[in-house]
Write a sequence for this structure.
C-alpha cells in the first residue's frame, strides 16, 4: 500500500510538472539578425565621451530583455578589454517609447537609437556615445602547419555525433574522436539571440578541455562575469573581465592547455593549467584547475576529447583547430 501511495504521488507530480511546462510561454530564439526583430537592432556596444570626472571615455552595453525592455550598463573608461577598469558599473533600465528607447533612473536618463546613446547622469555628467561593433583579434585565425583541423566547414568527420547545418556551421553537442594531452586550441562560436531567456537558459553551451574541464559558453553580454558565465572555468573560476560580445556576433576562444601530471602510481602531482583568450583578451592567465568541472570525466594520465557541450540551446561553432604540444 505504501509503495502504491508513493507511486501515485510521483505520477501526480510528474503530470503537474508536464502541465506547467505546457503552460509556460515559449521563449523565442533567433538565429539570424534578419529575423531577430527591432530589439536586436538596439542592443549592442556603445563608446564615446562624458563631460564629468577625470576620465572622459565612457563605454556602454545595452542588453535586450524582451518585449521592448532593455538594460544599459555604463562602464567608465571604455568597453571591457578596451579601457574599462573592470570594477565600476552603473546600470539603469529602459523601455520602448515610440521609435526610441528611453532609460530612466533617479540619477539620470538617456535616449537611444540604432546608432547613438545620449543623455546625462549624476555620476557621469552629459554623454554621447556611438554604436560600435568589435571583432576579436583572432577571428578567422589560420591554423599553423602542425595544427589538426577539427572543423573547417567541409565535414564533421573529426567528431562523434557531429552535425553540420546548411550554413556549414557545426551544431553544439559533439566530442572529438581524437584524444589530446597538452595543446593550443582555437574555436569560434555564435550565440543565438534569446532576449527573454535568463541565466543559464540564455544560449548555454561549453567547450570541454579533455572532456574534463568546461570553459563556459553563455550569452553573458553585459553581465558581471561570474564563475558560471562566459569565459569562466565553470563553477570554479570567473574570467578576469567579461569579454562576451552581443549574441549573433562571432566570438573566439584561444586556449593554451597543459594537462594535469601524475606519478608512476597514478597519483596527481600537478594540476592542469590553462590560459584563455576570449575575443583576443586574456581572461584566465596560467590558471590552475583543481579538478574536473560538473559533468567532466575523472582526471587521469590519459588525454581526453574536446567536447562542444549541447545544452538545449542552438549554439554554433566554426574554424576549430588544435596544435598538440606533446
Amino acid at each position: 500500500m505504501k509503495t502504491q501511495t508513493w507511486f501515485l504521488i510521483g505520477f501526480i507530480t510528474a503530470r503537474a510538472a508536464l502541465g506547467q511546462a505546457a503552460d509556460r510561454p515559449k521563449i523565442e530564439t533567433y538565429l539570424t539578425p534578419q529575423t531577430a526583430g527591432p530589439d536586436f537592432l538596439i542592443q549592442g556596444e556603445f563608446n564615446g565621451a562624458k563631460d564629468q570626472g577625470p576620465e572622459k571615455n565612457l563605454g556602454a552595453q545595452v542588453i535586450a530583455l524582451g518585449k521592448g525592455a532593455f538594460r544599459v550598463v555604463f562602464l567608465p573608461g571604455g568597453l571591457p578589454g578596451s579601457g574599462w577598469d573592470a570594477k565600476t558599473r552603473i546600470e539603469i533600465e529602459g523601455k520602448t517609447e515610440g521609435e526610441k528607447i528611453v532609460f530612466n533612473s533617479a540619477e539620470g536618463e538617456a535616449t537611444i537609437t540604432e546608432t547613438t546613446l545620449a543623455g546625462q547622469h549624476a555620476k557621469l555628467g552629459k554623454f554621447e556615445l556611438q554604436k560600435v561593433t568589435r571583432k576579436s583579434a583572432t577571428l578567422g585565425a589560420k591554423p599553423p602547419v602542425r595544427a589538426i583541423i577539427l572543423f573547417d566547414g567541409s565535414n564533421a568527420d573529426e567528431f562523434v555525433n557531429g552535425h553540420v547545418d546548411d550554413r556549414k556551421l557545426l551544431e553544439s553537442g559533439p566530442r572529438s574522436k581524437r584524444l589530446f594531452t597538452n595543446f593550443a586550441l582555437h574555436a569560434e562560436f555564435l550565440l543565438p539571440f534569446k532576449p527573454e531567456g535568463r541565466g543559464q537558459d540564455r544560449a548555454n553551451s561549453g567547450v570541454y578541455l579533455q572532456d574534463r574541464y568546461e570553459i563556459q559558453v553563455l550569452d553573458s553580454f553585459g553581465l558581471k562575469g561570474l564563475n558560471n558565465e562566459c569565459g569562466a572555468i565553470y563553477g570554479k573560476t570567473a574570467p578576469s573581465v567579461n569579454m562576451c560580445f552581443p549574441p549573433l556576433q562571432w566570438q573566439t576562444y584561444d586556449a593554451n592547455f597543459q594537462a594535469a601530471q601524475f606519478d608512476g602510481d597514478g597519483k596527481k602531482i600537478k594540476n592542469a593549467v590553462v590560459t584563455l583568450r576570449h575575443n583576443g583578451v586574456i581572461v584566465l592567465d596560467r590558471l590552475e584547475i583543481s579538478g574536473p568541472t560538473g559533468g567532466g570525466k575523472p582526471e587521469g594520465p590519459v588525454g581526453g576529447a574536446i567536447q562542444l557541450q549541447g545544452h538545449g540551446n542552438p549554439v554554433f561553432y566554426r574554424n576549430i583547430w588544435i596544435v598538440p604540444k606533446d
Q: What stands out?
A: Residues 2-23 form the longest helix (22 residues). The chain has two domains: 33-132, 148-324. The chain is about 10% helix and 40% strand. Residues 148-324 form a domain with the Jelly Rolls fold (CATH 2.60.120.560).
